[in-house]
Design a protein that fits this description.
Keywords: Cytoplasm, Exonuclease, Hydrolase, Metal-binding, Nuclease, RNA-binding, Zinc. The chain is an alpha/beta fold and about 550 residues long. The radius of gyration is 27 Å and the shape is globular.
């Protein structure tokens, strides 16, 4: 079939091009859709109470009859973590290499509605077909083993899909980036490679990203200086090579290792089963037995490197952990740099640890505590020169990173006009070797809030922020009796005059026969005038109804 008679190729980022997280990409050709990745995002300070964010699946679900499979590039949560929510809507076929398959299936166990769902494995050394798409995987390096890039053959040409990657010539586990295979795949099509979707998160970092293997030396240096102290290392729970280096350093100094946090324990259990984690006999001990050991001989590998309030390290810092107690002499090593929306919470955690008398090591004051799993400018230019595509699509970064990537590519002999900086939902359509922007999907924010999944709503989030910053005042009116209950607003015993004046404001509104909402507004105006604060005000009239702003 002549290329002009073949169906066009549409690529749509559902997530992963406007924000760093929620990676999900749709490839559509005729009656076939291929989905690459299905990740979660993490909430920021503007979404209190939200557990995670997920992509808007509407387009995928509306076209479920076309979807030939969901392919996962690697095991990080921002590339696979939304699968439980997608699969509860429709049980699509999901494809992953054995290690990633095991991680996914472990995470699905708590979702009983999915039953005994099984991910379909594929051999990373073999091509496979999904509808009109033929995928050929090749090995890349990242901060988790078995991360893959893909050459995807479509009716319009070959496309390279490289999510998170870097070139590491001496990785802790895995083998180096398979440059020969990538170069061979790039050189096969007579017409060249149509497009490259490339990780752009490191596009503002000069040079090449350093090897992961250099971290162990830093761990050993800190442990050598921490004799007689309890030691904590916090890192990303899926960063298996980092945890392996922590184990190696602990063994060198005769320490036992405690894995604290469900996500770390689950990941390492799977990694051990698949031969990725190596340890001397009995190095790793159970968290529930840690109190039986001399704390100065332990290294805790613990969750919470992004300052998550529900994670283990915060609970240890606050004295709320059921199994772990900070010793008088403790050391905490942050072996991860905060992601953009976690800087404030990480700094708050560091402050809390300092107040407890802990020695804290983090990247701003100690070199080589963290190495990115994402390539820098040198890595990106090397991949661009290996593939030499006609078009570039930066992914996995923010708008800032996409712009930096376009400038980088332009400065190395490629045409910036062929770099498509797509926002989430913005499609690009390829036909007869040419590209043009297509329609943009109207995507909504989807939050996971406890057991609820969907749009929490701007008004709910606004109320939560308002309560967090200004507190709440509840008013109960029964006949002539008015009772005020405050939470997080003022200390009642020291504010009797203020509260009595507030009651008078309410009595005046009642005498003017104002409805509940007007009473709430009047009281809110009074409290703001007197205190400069705007608490949520809720008025209840006995035998009446309750409203809130």
């Amino acid at each position: 079939m002549n290329i002009s008679e073949r169906p066009s190729l549409k690529i749509i980022p559902i997530g992963g091009t406007t924000t760093v997280q929620k990676n999900m990409y749709v490839y559509e050709c005729g009656n076939d859709i291929l989905v690459m990745d299905c990740g979660i995002g993490f909430p920021d300070m503007e979404t209190p109470g939200v557990d995670v964010t997920i992509p808007d699946f509407t387009y995928v679900l509306e076209n479920r009859h076309k979807v030939r499979g969901v392919v996962i590039t690697h095991g990080h949560e921002d590339h696979r973590g939304s699968l439980p929510y997608l699969l509860q809507e429709h049980k699509f076929d999901v494809y992953a290499v054995p290690f990633v398959k095991a991680l996914i299936e472990k995470s699905l166990e708590e979702y009983t509605s999915l039953g005994d769902y099984k991910v379909k494995p594929f051999d990373p050394n073999q091509s496979f077909q999904l509808g009109c798409f033929r995928l050929t995987p090749f090995r890349v390096n990242h901060s988790i083993p078995d991360t893959l890039g893909f050459a995807i053959d479509t009716p319009q040409g070959r496309v390279f899909h490289n999510s998170d990657f870097k070139f590491d010539w001496s990785p802790v586990m895995d083998k180096p980036f398979d440059v020969q295979k990538a170069a061979r795949l790039a050189g096969e099509p007579p017409e060249g490679v149509l497009a490259l979707l490339s990780d752009c998160l490191g596009s503002t970092s000069e040079g090449f990203t350093e090897s992961e293997s250099k971290i162990q030396e830093t761990f050993e240096t800190v442990l050598k200086d921490s004799v007689g102290k309890q030691v904590f290392i916090t890192t990303i729970s899926s960063n298996i090579s980092r945890i392996q280096q922590a184990i190696n350093a602990a063994e060198k100094f005769g320490r036992k290792v405690v894995l604290s946090g469900r996500s770390i324990r689950n990941t390492i259990e799977i990694a051990q089963q698949m031969g990725y984690i190596k340890e001397a006999k009995n190095t790793i001990i159970d968290e529930s037995d840690a109190h039986k050991h001399n704390q100065e001989t332990l290294v805790y590998v613990i969750t919470g490197c992004y300052g998550q309030k529900e994670a283990g390290l915060w609970r240890v810092a606050l004295g709320e952990h059921k199994n772990i107690v900070l010793s008088e002499k403790s050391v905490v090593i942050f072996s991860a740099d905060p992601i953009p929306n976690s800087v404030a919470t990480v700094n708050a955690l560091i402050d809390e640890l300092y107040l407890k008398g802990v020695d804290v090591y983090y990247s701003e004051i100690q070199d080589d505590l963290h190495v990115s799993g994402h390539g820098g400018q040198g890595d990106m230019v090397l991949l661009a020169n290996l593939v030499r595509p006609k078009y570039f699509i930066p992914i996995g970064g923010s708008i800032k990173h996409m712009r930096a990537y376009a400038n980088l590519i332009d400065s190395h002999g490629f045409d910036k006009r062929n770099v498509a900086q797509l926002l989430d939902g913005q499609s690009i359509v390829f036909k007869d070797g040419k590209a043009q922007l297509g329609d943009r999907l109207k995507l909504k924010e989807v939050y996971v809030d406890g057991n609820l999944v969907g749009d929490v709503g701007a008004s709910v989030l606004k109320d939560r922020i308002q309560m967090a910053n200004h507190g709440m005042v509840a008013v109960v009116i029964q006949g002539q009796n008015i009772e005020l209950i405050t939470r997080g607003f003022v200390f009642i015993k020291g504010s009797k005059k203020l509260l009595e004046s507030a009651k008078n404001t309410i009595r005046k509104s009642l005498s003017e026969k104002k409805d509940i909402r007007k009473i709430e507004n009047k009281l809110q105006q009074f409290l703001y005038k007197e205190t400069g604060r705007e608490p949520i005000v809720v008025v209840t009239i006995a035998n009446g109804k309750t409203t809130s702003p």
